[in-house]
Specification:
Length: 433
């Protein structure tokens, strides 16, 4: 027998607009009603909060299989739920790589019964080696809608063209849903040996840098390929002003391009690397103040479609190496909304669009995730207090790792409850799963 839960006293915000209403969901996963003074078996307080479709993250590293000491699907999903996410897209750079239907099924199986809906991208090439196309069709049949060699850009232009054309032909296997190629934009011949952004700070610190052009040349190339093939492409973690400008022009020309930006690429600059603390080492690297301004403008004017985390846990042992030897990446799931809400000069409706229904559409997860809050809709919701202030601490995160660069930072916006398929998986900021 199903039970009902009323979320009372909040302001509903979704792609259709903003209104004050209570929301009643049932344990079978559906929204029963949206209105006022409705009966339910249980209630959750949403006073002072917005009730939104659950957040969706296009870019998460869950480390399992292969590096469970840093994160597991279960711990990553719990962190995602605490951050208000009801769906996340895991990257395929695990060990072994997610480049077969069997590996897709393994990751999806690990995600069953966790606090968040776990999906996975598939690798564009076998082993992410950039040489041979992966068996995309079998992975689409297993549920994959996004392919990427994230961590490595596809260097061979002919192979990338073939991948775009092939992916564009596979929508018949996905019920008409488009298959998206997501590109890690980096020309490795230019970036090789670099550990931070190449510029004034890298020169001052004596740390070899990666020039912005390493990203921008591949953005330019793949925009040209999108024009040539008519296929859609998604640009991951844009980080430079010129990359943003090129994507803006591509959209104005009607090309099927989308893009994401990470929270750290609009909140941190390369100057933070002056501490030589590897917690600030990411890939692509932290850029300049001018780049941050451009990324924020891209998020504000719709050039950049989504905020993603690039959640990348690493053990303390790995991150405590020298700056040159430490791996790139930082945690992001539990701090993403608060950082976006604090640092972007945008109304709450726009922040939620960037973190819920727009990324859901790119990943092919709508309307189950990111869909309008209406009777009959899927009960995947986040209840967020946008005015609550809190101080970030690594000690209280769900992740097995602690590599957040934001320790001690005061932010605004706190997830109070997260509802997954009609069931509360986070209540009053505490995980139930």
């Amino acid at each position: 027998m199903s039970t009902t839960l009323a979320i009372r006293g909040g302001i509903v915000v979704d792609s259709t607009g903003t209104r004050r209403a209570d929301v009643v969901v049932d344990s079978r996963g559906s929204i029963v009603a949206v209105g006022a003074e409705m009966e339910a078996d249980e209630s959750l307080d949403a006073s002072g909060c917005v009730v939104s479709p659950g957040l969706v993250d296009l870019h998460v590293h869950l480390r399992q299989p292969g590096h469970e000491e840093a994160e597991t699907v279960e711990t990553g999903a719990r962190g995602a739920a605490l951050g208000g996410f009801t769906a996340i897209l895991a990257m395929p750079n695990t060990t072994p790589t997610v480049d077969t239907a069997a590996m897709v099924n393994e990751v999806i199986g690990l995600g069953r019964g966790t606090a968040c809906d776990v999906h996975t991208a598939g690798a564009i090439t076998v082993g992410r080696d950039g040489e041979t196309l992966s068996p995309m069709a079998e992975m689409v049949r297993a549920g994959v809608r996004v392919f990427t060699d994230d961590g490595t850009g596809v260097q061979d232009v002919r192979l990338m063209r073939t991948a775009l054309e092939y992916a564009d032909s596979l929508s018949y296997l996905s019920g008409g849903r488009p298959i998206v190629l997501a590109q890690h934009c980096e020309v490795s011949a230019l970036s090789k040996g670099g550990h931070m952004h190449e510029g004034r700070w890298s020169s001052s610190l004596g740390i070899p840098g990666q020039p912005a052009e390493a990203e921008e040349l591949m953005v330019m190339r793949d925009i040209a390929l999108a024009r040539l093939t008519g296929a859609r492409i998604h640009f991951q973690h844009l980080s430079t002003a010129r990359s943003v400008a090129m994507v803006r022009s591509a959209k104005q020309a009607g090309l099927l391009v989308t893009a994401e930006a990470t929270t750290h690429h609009f909140t941190l600059t390369d100057e933070t690397c002056a501490s030589y603390d590897p917690v600030f080492k990411v890939h692509p690297p932290l850029r300049t103040d001018e780049d941050i301004v451009a990324v924020k403008q891209g998020l504000a004017d719709g050039t950049i479609d989504a905020v993603a985390t690039d959640h990348a846990p690493h053990t303390s042992e790995d991150k405590e190496r020298t700056f040159a030897d430490a791996p790139s990446g930082m945690l992001g799931l539990e701090t993403a909304f608060a950082l976006a809400n604090t640092e972007l000069d945008l109304p709450i409706e726009e922040v939620l669009a960037l973190m819920s229904w727009r990324p859901a559409a790119i990943a092919g997860l709508d309307p189950v995730h990111g869909g309008p809050i209406v009777a009959g809709g899927a009960a995947n919701l986040a209840v967020i207090d946008p005015g609550a202030t809190w101080t970030i601490s690594a000690d209280h995160m769900a992740s097995r790792s602690t590599n957040t660069p934001y320790v001690g930072r005061v932010v605004r916006g706190k997830v109070r409850h997260t509802i997954l398929r009609g069931l509360p998986v986070v209540v009053d900021g505490e995980a139930r799963m």
